[in-house]
Structures
1.
Amino acid sequence: MAQRHSTPTLSKSKVSDQRFAAGHESSPKNDISCHFLQQLPAYLDPSKVVSVVVRGEHFGSWDTPREQWEAGFQVMAIESNGNEKHVKNFLSSQLSISAIKQECGAIAKALSATLIDTTINFNVEA
């Protein structure tokens, strides 16, 4: 009898694993999504976020001439009430642009939000 009960259990388990492996968006058990949600700032309420915006920025201190500031990307979360909250900054010297954009996409997916990329005309060398 134990074998008869174990077969359906294994079958259900496989179906469940396939659903999560396919990236079922409503699943909070997705390891990657949980990883990104845990790294978000504490002041950010994931249930209120409707979109994630990626902007090109230049980072530096006020003591440094603007020409020496480093190009990078700023990630902001837009809440349903229109408020913007800072999520993360990336410097282009630390990661490739494609890696940065992949991480931004993963953050948006973890938040079940739309990713808005405004960096199309941003020049990282300028």
2.
Amino acid sequence: MPYPARALQYQQALSQAQIDSAIKSSSKQLKGKDALLAHLEQGRLYQLAGNYALSEQQFKQALQQFDDLDQRATLSLSSGLEQSSALVSNDNLIPYQGNLFERIFAHQFQAFNYIAQGDKSAALVEMRRAQFFQDKARDKQAPPPPSELSNDANSTYQQRLGSTYELAQRVNSSTENAYSFYLAALLYEATGQLDDAYIDYKRALSIAPNNRFVQQDVARLATRLQRTDELKRFNLKPLTANLPANTGTVVVLYEEGFVPAKEEIFLPFPWPQSWYVLAFPYYKQAWQATEPLSFSLNHQSLDSQLLADTQSLAAYALKEQIPSLLVRQTLRAQTKHKLQQEANDKGGAVLGLLVSAYNILSENADLRSWLTLPRSCQVARIQLSAGQYPLTLSPTLNTSITVNPQQITLVRVVKTNNHVYVASWPL
């Protein structure tokens, strides 16, 4: 079963508030080649179920697997065999290795676990780790591997995979995640580290320049830190820097929908005296406009604004992998062509037909990715006098939150199609 079909079960369970069934289903993958992916999915599932301790364990194991992959200076024998097997079949035989944008989300979601358990210091450690990988990706962009395909062939493939490129054009990198920078800034601000908070609010603003809440945060801290020159650079007006004594802040972080799944496309691969059809992953679905969270707090209506367009981050991550995919597919075509020739020479027409059938049936694209991630991540922010307030998320969904003086109350809202998960914590 292709991975998106499996993950659809997790998404449906989240949408129906039946998380236990999704956890049970994903547990079957914890020991196999999709173990990293299963830990990521389970970390997300346990977290939305409110079981932060078990979510923490799952993300720890996922992040440890990421670290282990980093430490492999050379391929082990087993990994080499897996790579060789993949050349005569498909990339699904290779253990899932994730990508950097998923790793950044894993650190951020682990930070949410620590926030929920009252450990802001540990949460900040996770956010620093997330930023380490964001900085590493920004400072070191590896050139694509050389391809044996002609320029015309490369151009043809890029045209056929055009929907992925179009979706990726909405971001500049798969790792520039304003949602991550914003949560880090919140934690720095909550712990009195205003210079660090200001730096990360600015980084969030550089990625989401039209977000008025982030604009206000940068203006507020620039005023407080007396960075008037930077106010001019960002074209912002000074804001009141200090809260009144009996006033607190409510920050609503909103995660909406599900990131799209990869789909499979079969493309012809030219080879002397023959043609092969090879499978590639791509994003077929066009960009979907993000939906803001419209809510009422203390009878004031607010709409959230976009921080991270995860669907475009995922597409950019795949776009970055396409040059390597083309190289592997070139090698796969060479290997299959050689097997076909040997079968024809040594076994005659019957064996040749069998090998040809195997080559066709074994050709499947690797469609794996972390599919319980949200489609988009958004923010809204408001200042209120200390007290208890009703929060109305829909005509049938109401809760209450506590605002403490001179403190940030963090509200996390996750909408998974038909169900909404809400949690709040003081920072």
3.
Amino acid sequence: MSMEKVANKQYETKNWPDIVDSDDSDVDNEIDVDNLPPLEVGPGENRLQHTYCLWFSRKETQRAAADYSKSLHMVGRCASVQQWWSLYSHLIRPTALKPYRELLLFKQGIVPMWEDPANSKGGQWLIRLRKNKVDRAWENVCMAMLGEQFLVGDEICGVVLQTKYPEDSLAVWHRTATDMTSTTRIRDTLRRILNIPLTTAMEYKIHCDSLKYVSNNKGPLKS
């Protein structure tokens, strides 16, 4: 797939159902995210502070680190509010996805894997959601990230939505697990955005611990 096709992918909708439901896809997962061409922002568009890449992962079982990279497909990019809404309006909603599918919105240049240098020393706040809550939660958290509402500088890496059964999960990834000020602020912002009561527990996972678990157990991580 050419870089020009990738750059314009957020305006294409015909391939999205194939990515979700078929065994084969024409979306290239060997994209060099460090060398993508600039994404133009037109006159009158509201530029985002960062360019973001939307990824999709399709697996029939829980993910294993050994082959997870093969399941990742980049399906679009956005550099303005208008481009995000164009992309978002063409997405299948999380409640319509089959189990063990992931939608991942990350800053351009960061691959949504624990091993990526931007993620390797970081962690994630994980929230488990009922099916009837996940669509709005996904939209609200993505908008909060795009709008820089977390107020933690460059700490935020991306947002991951994973469909499971009977509940789905939503996670915010950030760079530095040892930065307690940022970690706490991300947690508190999530509580505010999603109206999570203080009595509801939120789970925090450190990426290097997840990598060690997979390495030691030679199998999928149960999240």
4.
Amino acid sequence: MTGRYAARFLLGLAAVVFLFGSTSAAQGIPAQASDYVGVTPCSDCHFAYFQQFQKGSMAALLSDKYPLEQRGCEGICHGPGRVHANVEKAKREQEAATPQTTPGAPPPPPPTLTPEEFKALSQTRLLGPPGRWRFEQTTEEQEERFQIYNPNHQPPKEVSDACQSCHQKDEKASLFARSRHLGAGVSCLDCHDPHLIIGNLREEDARPSAALESQFSVPKRSFEHTWLDNRLLREGEPKLCYSCHREVEAQFQLPVRHRVNEGSVKCSDCHNPHGSLSAPELRAAGSEACSSCHVEKRGPFVHEHAAVRVEGCTACHTPHGSINRQLLKRRQDRQLCLECHTAPESLNVPHPRLGFQAAGECTRCHIDIHGSNYQKQFLR
């Protein structure tokens, strides 16, 4: 190592110590208030994202009532951005000063940083989660340049904790912590985008209501058919749900089905995607989820059908789709009834006057099978 190179190398290390203090790969050092730069440097490069962000429901984070380290892009989601902003600014200055480089050759270091300073900064990354930001030195193989903290690349639990640092008073937060989605490795960002989400006019569920359309002016830019989604969903229902639940998508293609694909019903009408105390993530327990629409089957009845009382509607019906009428699990009513009514007298009861010489369909006589206020055996 020549004396000149050694001097520049030490200068680079000194710059890192000056910027971040002493560091260790194991522990890192906490971020300071001076490591935050505010939203202006972010919007200089990420203008399109910022235009979306400031019109969405997350724009409240831009308020001056929050201290700088809790505000805007850096506050909850991306962490302190001073080093990232400085390095990117230096790179742009260098690109402007030297517009042409040899193909395949690495770009020269920015003029505002020494080569060692730039290399050292490029090997520094930010560790989360929010509120506990730390800097750590990494090898050149791990990081080609400094990257701002990106929640999309973090473990689901860490991402959800970041979201719940604001949404902690929402019942969704407590439910999601025990949900099947989180247990399966799904994070908030798999379904939601904290920036203003855009939809397509060609898709019916992407167009906003008249009231919503009158309140928001969506930036057009290069998209002439964009609309605001007030839930920040990455895609509308049911397409968003189908991206994981392929088997359910197939069930909704069956001849007899709930009209989800037609837009009459949504997945979230029955299921709570953030979690529920009722499996499978139902908004209401047991048959209550069904009776919220099918009110005539709700009861209470003087004489209840045990299958409905114990197992609920799914004892006989499949909720998404079926090849059988009325979403029944079996094609013939008799086959379905005999799954529970196994006594010999249930199996073969002739009714000659009704045309049943051996046995017939149970529902020819037992018509009020969901429950009755008059007949214990649900007869006509």
